[in-house]
Write a structure and sequence with these properties.
Elements: H1 3-13, H2 20-29, H3 35-48, H4 53-59, H5 68-85, H6 92-117, H7 122-150, H8 154-181, H9 192-195, E1 201-205, E2 215-219, E3 222-229, E4 232-237, E5 251-256, E6 262-267, E7 274-276, E8 282-284, E9 293-298, E10 303-308
Antiparallel strand pairs: 1-10, 2-3, 3-4, 4-9, 5-6, 6-7, 7-8, 9-10
Bound molecules: FE2/S2 (inorganic) cluster.
Length: 310
């Protein structure tokens, strides 16, 4: 090996430097010491927040997207603006209004966050717990900042505000890790529509499908939920949009959807998301994203064929 190649090899074999915050966030994913409080809190949330319209609204089912992430913008925006105004003279009143508005926005933000967090995997709940700790500390510091400003101690109020912003950013970083690295809130079924080539595909024979009982079939490497009923054959992506639970192991129920229509649905065995089998639309959360659905037809020789619904 010549000198140059050996130098490159030595450099290549060295572990790549990694950004420190990611190491911390990944460490939290495995911090089992957080499990006990996480279990206690999530059990309490599930007991208070029973399945129904309030829970669905907190998850964001009517909007078709999780409600928590956009709501965080209210407090972050208000408090960040207050921080900028605090650098300028004569803006005390405006800063107080913004801090108060941020505190008001923190209430629905926390409620939606708790609802989502109570239906996550343990690794996600560990990170989510510290995220919530950061944002709750930030809210408490902003409350203290407002109180101190009202008492006429503007400098101390600003200091509490900047301390709150530091915790807010730390919490926001973990929120980003939770959403983008750990996939909390994103649809876990969405890629299916991009993985199936256009056109009809043979799936199985109609004879082998039991009546009214969901089964699992594979289309290449894609898992599908298949249900044969008197209405026909219904096919959905099998991995639940919420966190990829196996829908073919779910219960088949008749539910009333948001429009008041009665529909045949499948309930995910993991956290109870309920989807209409006809088109994959969400009837109950925590999932907010539609389950990809497939059109079906049976050929003359009894083969069930599917193609993605567009
Ligand atoms: S994986 Fe959570 S409801 Fe399906």
């Amino acid at each position: 090996m010549n000198q140059r190649v050996s130098k490159i090899f030595r450099r290549g074999s060295r572990p790549l430097p990694r950004p420190h915050p990611v190491d911390l966030a990944e460490g939290l994913e495995h911090a089992r010491g957080l499990d006990r409080p996480a279990r206690t809190i999530s059990r309490a949330i599930r007991e208070v927040l029973r399945p129904g319209p309030v829970k669905d609204t907190l998850h964001g089912v009517p909007a078709g997207h999780p409600a928590h992430p956009p709501l965080t913008d209210v407090s972050v925006g208000c408090w960040m603006s207050a921080g900028v105004l605090d650098l300028l003279p004569g803006t005390e009143q405006a800063s107080k209004i913004l801090i108060g508005a941020g505190l008001a926005g923190a209430i629905p933000t926390a409620l939606t966050g708790l609802a989502d967090w109570s239906a996550l995997h343990p690794e996600q709940q560990r990170v989510g717990l510290v995220h919530a700790l950061g944002t709750t500390t930030a809210s408490a510091l902003y409350l203290l900042s407002l109180f101190t400003r009202h008492r006429g101690h503007t400098a101390a109020g600003k200091a509490f505000g900047y301390a709150g912003f530091t915790f807010l950013m730390a919490g926001a970083y973990l929120g980003g890790h939770l959403a983008f690295r750990q996939g909390a809130g994103a649809s876990h079924a969405e890629p299916v529509s991009h993985l199936v080539p256009l056109g009809w595909h043979d799936l199985c024979t109609a004879d082998e499908l039991p009546d009214g009982w969901p089964v699992h079939r594979r289309l290449g490497y894609i898992s599908l939920f298949v249900l044969r009923t008197q209405d026909g054959i219904h096919v959905l992506a099998d991995r639940c949009a919420h966190l990829a639970g196996p829908l073919h192991q779910g219960r088949i129920v008749t539910e009333t959807d948001l429009t008041g229509d009665t529909a045949l649905c499948v309930v995910c065995p993991w956290h109870g998301s309920t989807f209409r089998v006809r088109d994959g639309s969400v009837v109950h959360g925590p999932a907010t994203g539609r389950q990809p659905a497939f059109e079906t037809r049976v050929t003359e020789n009894g083969t069930v064929q599917v193609r993605p619904k567009v």
